[in-house]
């Protein structure tokens, strides 16, 4: 039977030759992830199971990134609980501030993910790792607890969707625009319970960082996972990061985890994206997208550049290109958050931070912070922010009567300078 | 179980169910105080324990926060009826033992304030106000076992 890459990974981890959509399977996991919001309930549930140890001390990743550096006493208590749990069970991969990062930027960067992996994380944006050819999906705290104890998780095999992107991208159109465009086309439940496989000539040219941005937002279309078949780019990316696996192992994985030519898809979307512009998702759904040229007189109070979607070095380079020699509009607060310590450090070496400081940006240590209305840039009633983040739900960045507009990095940076939502073309 | 229906629109996301600003705790009673706050800040004071939440399509979309079904359960809602549920919310609800019923017909046939009875074991939803009854989609056998065990943790303990 012809299988997609997602089906092949699920089958392998379930100890089966093939799997079919709708089938209920039990899978072994390669990595279990939790953050400072989802880990505390997982730790409580883990205690109820009554096992003496975790299934594997090296395969559990605990990343306190949402409300850290601890924004208040309760948040500090939550991280303390994680820290103590990690110590008690000898969990190697606990990341303190100073070496942490936004989880979905941190794990790929440190080489924790390889093609063919099956990953679950108690964070909905765990789907990010599909960029490296892994089957990766978000779950809740109880699933995390169970997986920490037994190293297994149940799945219903999802139906498969295929997205083919063809053409040549216009200037200033980024990976973020491809995924916002996709969500705009199919809606916030257009891929509900399903796998989203991204392919086509545009995808082949896309950097791994761009693929991470796209896979990251599969959940915003309701998807179970987003996935890219590993290719030469994946291989080059991993070569610099993965120390344990030999190159030949990665080459084997690359060859093994490809979709068969006659695999079955519930639906295939075939788009020429040559004409699309940078996209802006208006409040209060990521599917509420418009081309940037159709955004007229949307004044903003804040611009946030960062998050697990767009806080990587390529993103910061784009921001610097726009902000160089310019200043933020006096009515706009510009907040830039490098997603990991290594990205921050690299940005300093390249002089990007200096450009941001001169543009009067507030540059923060890595944190999810404002993306989920945690801290580091909360909106007051009636305020508007453009953001490179992933959700624009009611109250997402603060007051229930504030608004978030989602965009790519170039548009967020240009808008910070203009004071209203604008294309970099028109700056 | 019997109670009043409170209707909510399509795409009720987890930030509406429990805003992130309250996620510096996972205490169910504390979370319940803010349940549905950004969808309707007055709801928690209007609702009675035993009342049902009736949602549209894609109920519970967004974040993986289990705090969302926990807040609903702790607020005293015995079950959520919706046209469809977002994937992670669906898993979480089953895992923590919050009953969920999927039935587009029932949702269309229920108005705010209608008196509803739910027979969970049979998947029956009865609108006492209109006299009409509906059948929710049955769970696959494995999920029904999880539900019968009282959630994932109990299920695993029994299997151990």
From TrEMBL, chain A:
Free-text comment on the cofactor? Binds 1 [4Fe-4S] cluster per subunit.
Q: Which gene produces this protein? A: leuC
The record lists [4Fe-4S] cluster as bound by 308, 368, 371
Q: What is its EC number?
A: 4.2.1.33
Q: Which residues form the Aconitase/3-isopropylmalate dehydratase large subunit alpha/beta/alpha domain?
A: 8-295
Pathway of this protein? Amino-acid biosynthesis; L-leucine biosynthesis; L-leucine from 3-methyl-2-oxobutanoate: step 2/4
Q: What is the scientific name of the source organism?
A: candidate division WOR-1 bacterium RIFOXYB2_FULL_37_13
What InterPro entries does the annotation carry? Acnase/IPM_dHydase_lsu_aba_1/3, Acoase/IPM_deHydtase_lsu_aba, Aconitase_4Fe-4S_BS, Aconitase_4Fe-4S_dom, HAcnase/IPMdehydase_lsu_prok, Homoacnase/IPMdehydase_lsu, IPM_dehydratase_rel_enz, IPMI_cat
Q: Which UniProt keywords apply?
A: 4Fe-4S, Amino-acid biosynthesis, Branched-chain amino acid biosynthesis, Iron, Iron-sulfur, Leucine biosynthesis, Lyase, Metal-binding
The record's family statement is: Belongs to the aconitase/IPM isomerase family. LeuC type 2 subfamily.
Function, as annotated? Catalyzes the isomerization between 2-isopropylmalate and 3-isopropylmalate, via the formation of 2-isopropylmaleate.
- GO BP term (any one): L-leucine biosynthetic process
**Keyword Iron attached:** yes
The identity of this protein, by name, is 3-isopropylmalate dehydratase large subunit
Keyword Iron attributed: yes
One GO molecular function term of this record is: metal ion binding
Quaternary organization = Heterodimer of LeuC and LeuD.
* Pfam families (UniProt xref): Aconitase (PF00330)
Q: Which reaction does it catalyse?
A: (2R,3S)-3-isopropylmalate = (2S)-2-isopropylmalate
Q: Which cofactor does it need?
A: [4Fe-4S] cluster
TrEMBL record, chain B:
Q: Which GO terms describe its molecular function?
A: 3-isopropylmalate dehydratase activity
Q: Where does the Aconitase A/isopropylmalate dehydratase small subunit swivel domain start and stop, copy by copy?
A: 51-99
Task: State which pathway it belongs to.
Answer: Amino-acid biosynthesis; L-leucine biosynthesis; L-leucine from 3-methyl-2-oxobutanoate: step 2/4
Which Gene3D superfamilies does the UniProt record give?
Aconitase, domain 4 (3.20.19.10)
For biological process, the GO terms are:
L-leucine biosynthetic process
Q: What is its EC number?
A: 4.2.1.33
Q: Does the keyword Ubl conjugation apply?
A: no
For this protein, what reaction is catalysed?
(2R,3S)-3-isopropylmalate = (2S)-2-isopropylmalate
Instruction: Say which family it is in.
Output: Belongs to the LeuD family. LeuD type 2 subfamily.
**Subunit structure as annotated in this protein's UniProt entry:** Heterodimer of LeuC and LeuD.
**PANTHER family assigned to the protein according to its UniProt record, in alphabetical order:** 3-ISOPROPYLMALATE DEHYDRATASE SMALL SUBUNIT 1 (PTHR43345:SF2), 3-ISOPROPYLMALATE DEHYDRATASE SMALL SUBUNIT 2-RELATED-RELATED (PTHR43345)
Q: What is the official name of this protein in its record?
A: 3-isopropylmalate dehydratase small subunit
Q: What is the lineage of its organism?
A: Bacteria, Bacillati, Saganbacteria
């Amino acid at each position: 039977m012809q299988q997609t890459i997602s089906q092949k990974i699920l089958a392998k981890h379930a100890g089966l030759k093939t799997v079919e959509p709708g089938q209920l399977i039990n899978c072994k996991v390669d990595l279990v992830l939790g953050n400072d919001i989802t880990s505390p309930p997982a730790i409580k549930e883990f205690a109820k199971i009554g096992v003496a140890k975790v299934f594997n001390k090296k395969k559990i990743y605990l990343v306190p990134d949402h409300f850290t550096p601890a924004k208040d006493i309760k948040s500090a208590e939550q991280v303390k609980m994680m820290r103590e749990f990690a110590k008690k069970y000898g969990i190697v991969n606990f990341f303190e501030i100073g070496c942490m990062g936004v989880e979905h930027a941190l794990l790929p960067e440190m080489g924790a993910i390889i093609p063919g992996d099956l990953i679950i994380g108690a964070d909905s944006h765990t789907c990010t790792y599909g960029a490296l050819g892994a089957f990766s999906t978000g779950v809740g705290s109880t699933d995390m607890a169970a997986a920490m104890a037994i190293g297994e998780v149940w799945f219903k095999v999802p139906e498969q969707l295929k997205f083919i992107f063809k053409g040549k991208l216009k200037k200033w159109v980024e990976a973020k625009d491809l995924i916002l465009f996709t969500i705009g086309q199919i809606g916030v439940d257009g891929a509900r319970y399903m796998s989203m496989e991204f392919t086509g000539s545009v995808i082949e040219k896309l950097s791994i960082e761009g693929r991470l941005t796209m896979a990251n937002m599969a959940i915003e279309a309701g998807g179970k996972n987003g996935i890219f078949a590993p290719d030469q780019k994946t291989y080059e990316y991993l070569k610099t990061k993965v120390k344990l696996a030999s190159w030949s192992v990665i080459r084997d994985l690359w060859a093994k985890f490809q979709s068969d030519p006659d695999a079955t898809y519930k639906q295939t979307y075939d788009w020429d994206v040559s004409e699309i512009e940078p996209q802006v998702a208006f409040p209060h759904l990521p599917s509420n997208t418009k081309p940037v040229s159709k955004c007229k007189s949307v004044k903003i109070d804040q611009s946030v550049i960062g998050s697990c979607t767009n806080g990587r070095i390529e993103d910061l380079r784009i921001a610097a290109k726009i902000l160089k020699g310019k200043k933020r509009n006096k009515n706009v607060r510009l907040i830039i958050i490098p997603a990991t310590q290594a990205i921050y450090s690299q940005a300093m070496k390249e002089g990007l931070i200096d450009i941001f400081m001169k543009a009067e940006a507030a540059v923060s240590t890595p944190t999810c912070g404002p993306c989920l209305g945690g801290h580091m840039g909360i909106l007051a009633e009636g305020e508007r922010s453009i953001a490179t983040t992933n959700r624009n739900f009611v109250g997402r960045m603060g007051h229930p009567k504030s608004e978030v507009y989602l965009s790519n990095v170039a548009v967020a940076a240009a808008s910070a300078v203009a004071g209203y939502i604008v294309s970099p073309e028109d700056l | 179980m019997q109670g009043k229906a409170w209707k909510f629109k399509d795409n009720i996301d987890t930030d509406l169910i429990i805003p992130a600003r309250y996620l510096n705790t996972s205490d169910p009673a504390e979370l319940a105080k803010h349940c549905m706050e950004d969808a309707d800040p007055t709801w928690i004071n209007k609702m009675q324990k035993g009342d049902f939440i009736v949602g549209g399509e894609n109920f519970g979309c967004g974040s993986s926060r289990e705090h969302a079904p926990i807040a609903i359960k702790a607020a005293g809602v015995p079950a959520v009826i919706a046209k469809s549920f977002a994937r992670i919310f669906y898993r979480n609800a089953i895992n923590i033992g919050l009953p969920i019923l999927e039935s587009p017909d029932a949702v269309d046939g229920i108005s705010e304030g209608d008196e509803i009875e739910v027979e969970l074991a049979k998947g029956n939803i009865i609108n006492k106000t209109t006299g009409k009854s509906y059948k929710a989609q049955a769970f696959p056998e494995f999920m029904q076992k999880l539900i019968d065990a009282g959630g994932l943790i109990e299920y695993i303990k029994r299997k151990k």
